[in-house]
C-alpha cells in the first residue's frame, strides 16, 4: 500500500482508522506494527476449508489438504473428520448416537445405512438424524445390533466408514431374593401350625 510507509499521507486520507494494509498504527500515526488478520475470521477472506497464514503486512490463504483452489475459494471431495468408535456396546433401552462429521465443497449428501443378513446395506428406519450427519437410535433393542455405514458424497468424490453396534440385555441379579424366599418357605414348613404347612397338608399326606 502507498500508505504503509507514509503515516502523514495516511492521516490525510483516512480519519480515525487504526488498521490498513495489514498494519496497525498507533494513535499518533507515527509508528506501525504488523496486524495479524488470521486472529479473527472477520479480518481475512480465507475459505472455511483453508488455513490462514499471517505474514508481514498481509496474510496467505491455503486450502486444506485434499482441497484445491486459491485459498479464498476451496473445493474438495468429502472428508469424514469425526467418527464413532469401530465397536460400540450398549444395553437395551439406552440411546446410541453415531457420529459422522464431514467437510466438503460442494456440500455433501450424508447417509447412514445398516447391513442386513445378506451383508447388503439398507436404509435405517429406527434412527433420527441431524443436519451434521449424526444419528441417534432411541431406546435401543437387541435387534438394533449390527454393522452401520456412514457414506458422504458430492460431485467430486466420497468418503465412508463403518461401526459395529452390540446391544446387550439388562440382567438383574435376584439370587439373594430367591435364597431369602426359600429360607422363609422352609421355616414355615418346619412349623406344623403355619399356614404354608396346613395348605400343603391338604394336598399331600404328611406323616
From TrEMBL:
Pfam family, one: Ig_3
GO terms for cellular component: neuron projection
Any one GO MF annotation of this record: calcium ion binding
Alphabetic keyword roster: Disulfide bond, EGF-like domain, Immunoglobulin domain, Repeat, Signal
Family matches, as InterPro entries: EGF, EGF-like_Ca-bd_dom, EGF-type_Asp/Asn_hydroxyl_site, EGF_Ca-bd_CS, Ig-like_dom, Ig-like_dom_sf, Ig-like_fold, Ig_sub
Domain of life: Eukaryota
Protein name, entry field: Matrix-remodeling-associated 5-like
Source organism phylogeny: Eukaryota, Metazoa, Cnidaria, Anthozoa, Octocorallia
